[in-house]
Fold this sequence. Notes:
Elements: H1 3-43, H2 50-55, H3 61-67, H4 71-93, H5 100-116, H6 118-126, H7 128-131, H8 134-151, H9 157-175, H10 181-197
Amino acid sequence: MNIYFKSELDKFSVMSAVEAENKRAVNTKAQILDNARELFATHGYDGTSIRQLTASLNITPAALYYHFASKNDVLEGLAKKLHDGSDALLQRIREFDQSAESMREALCQYYDLLADDIHVFRLVYNDAAIQHSPIGQRLRGQARDFYAYLVGPEPSVEDRMRAAGAVGIIRLSLEQRGVDPAKYRDVVVERAVRVMTDI
């Protein structure tokens, strides 16, 4: 066999093996996060051990630690999409005014953000241990910043009540299990907007 050709084949084999290993690692990481979402929802964050996180996947704790430094790191990975999406939403609404059109757009984007990762939102919202974790604290801070936009500068009691009502409508509608978020998006957001603009 031509030496050059054999060398190229060897390179191809090494590259294929590396690509296969990278795919396996990505799949394992995604499986750990999916498993964690289910276990945290069932047993709570504090009630879920590393052993539980690994046993149902038939991997060792060492395999988990290859991807995540700790159980808190698993939680950070699980909430990353919601956290990053919330950051992006807050960046966008910095350019918004307090008009009804801007409020509608902000509430639409908020609905889409929660609908896209409702299982993680539900975990954060319902688990006190997660709420008090570093990622939980950051997510709660983001929620306060969004609420601050809705109430506007120097809010009245009525402003605060309207904002709480609008956010509550969106959250509670998405909390309903088995409901298709895309199907009811316009109706839910319109009701939230009506609450915000009701004077």
